[in-house]
Design a protein that fits this description.
alpha+beta; 2 domains; Arc Repressor Mutant, subunit A; about 50% helix; seven-stranded antiparallel β-sheet; globular; Jelly Rolls; about 20% strand
Length: about 280
Amino acid sequence: MNNHTKSILYRIAKRGGSGVEAVNIENDLVVFPLCGSVAIFYNGIKTVVGASELLLLNRGIHQVEFDDCQLIVFQLPVVELEQVILYLSADYQLCIDTDHSCDACRFRNFFVAKPSAALTEFFSSINRLLDIECLDENNRRLKLPELIYLILSSGSDCLKYRLLRMLSYHDSRFLQAVYNQIFAPASLSEMAHDCSVSESTFKREFSRRFHTTLHRWSATQRLDRAQILLRTTTHTVSEIATLCAYTNLSHFCKSFKQHYNITPTKYRKLYKIKE
């Protein structure tokens, strides 16, 4: 659990009997025990997280004791977490603000929750896929937006608050403006105005974070979204072009082929996920 792997999603077995360990967590984690339990010690209090409970663990050093457990672990690097949450906000109109605050979820560096039925089934399906070894790293990363969506839409104010607290709020206003314009294009001046900064400052901050121009980055995000829709939906190519903010079908097809070296129609024939 101490970030022994670069994979964003992994399953790990930990035997009991080793006593309390100091575990250094480099990224925030979402942990789901499949069996056994893991105990967290904080301010002299021991909290036991059992099978089918959900543990949100903030980065830092934790005092942990394992008891013959098997865990599914998602790593949540801050930049990826921000991008996923703000993408979901733009694409699914999920609210990413919360004014919730209570003693149960505010003052500790971890949080334990009873997951919704949908979250429980999500982790069960992850476990089955790991059993048959059909999750490569790309597909594991595609599971992260699904996890975040299920947490944000779970109805638990505490769970939502703890997830959003993992964000770097210094950057959230800037990132909100960036991700909002992917599928509802805005001018540079409008985006800078939304962030209360000059256009030059906005461009400089964007270049610092994404190492490319806003135009190129936005085009890549739209095309990435298009290839996902081609693989996973029955929308026509024309409908997908519209959903990805292209007003001209031929321009979409030309851009897609330039980016992926294949036409949208041929891509769908090759990579459409069979139901």
